[in-house]
Amino acid sequence: MSDEYFVFEDVDGYKRSSEYTAGGLCLIRIGCVLGSPPRYRIINKLGRGAFSTVWLARDLIESRNVALKIIQADRTSDSKEPTILQRLKAPDAEDPRVIQLLDVFAHASPNGTHQVLVMEPVHPIDFMRYSAFRPIFTREVVYQTIQGLAFIHNRGIAHGDLHPGSLGIAAPEIYQFSDVDIWSLSNHPYTLAIVHSSVDQNPDSFPPSPEFTQHPLSIRILDLGNTYIVGESSPPRCVMPITYAPPEVVFRQQALKDLHAPWDQSSDIWSLALCIHALTCSDSLFSHITSSLLHEMMHYCGEVPNTWHEFIRSNPFPRGRPEHADKLWKEREKVFALRGVEDPPGFIRLLRQMMVLDPAKHPSAAKLLCDPYFTSL
């Protein structure tokens, strides 16, 4: 079949020409075949990261569809993502809740040499931000997400870039879709997944969900390009969206003007709590106004670390009071109840364990899996 049959919309807009220069992005054409020997035929564009593009491709040897993450040329030599992903490979019988690496190779283009990571295809979980989890999903989705983080931490790795966009759902059905299937599904009109907030809702009264949502969800943690191995290297600069950044990073950036504030595995616990909140409530707990972020953190957390006291005394920030935090979370409890969350008080207790301003007081991901909130699973 000729390339002209494969017509897809660029899912994230046209690229600036400046991104396709020496050292920049790899120019990819639908239908081209990558690998040595040629193996992966490009079907469609899935999206892009800060320094990469992501494509759906057909593995001509294994007869399955895969995702190719193609790194910008001037970032290829510094990329540690293959090392991290190799460390996170799981036995075939184990579901690690972390995206799995299938292959890695180098691809030469006029812009340089690009590292190409071949991974399992996943569906972004972000769509669930726009309709609340069905109650049968909520507890299980949260548990699996914490399982994924525990798996990463158990391998000695800190993630450092957890936000809703770094979470996905395994989509095994897409492995065997034909090119024509992909073309059909990518055409207008768009299809949106609907996950109703009430188990009492008649499923025939609203459009059906895509097939993968009708099976038990299997979470995948993605975006491992900013991770590091604890004890073997120093943390890179924190690049996650500011509303998901851990307080120790935000504090050092604002109070000490330290743009390379250190972070570690305990920082991931805070960020994951905010991911869980955003996926459940369809919005971020904190505003995007950077100057008020520390203020909001103190209000929701109540207790302030000793290292913050001097800064608070010299700035117009209230110290934060536990009783005020209790009141704010009581209001959030009503929101969670409306969203169909099981056991809103237990859910809030889980989040508040994770959202402590002092990172030394964060529970480990492994400990969170034993929280009473998950007893019924």
From TrEMBL:
Record keywords: ATP-binding, Kinase, Nucleotide-binding, Serine/threonine-protein kinase, Transferase
GO biological process, one term: regulation of RNA splicing
This protein's GO CC annotations: nucleus
Domain Protein kinase: residue ranges: 40-374
Pfam families: Pkinase
Keyword Transport part of the UniProt annotation: no
An example Gene Ontology molecular-function term: protein serine/threonine kinase activity
SMART domains noted in UniProt: S_TKc
Binding annotation for ATP: K69
Name of the protein in its database record: Kinase-like domain-containing protein
Organism of origin: Mycena albidolilacea
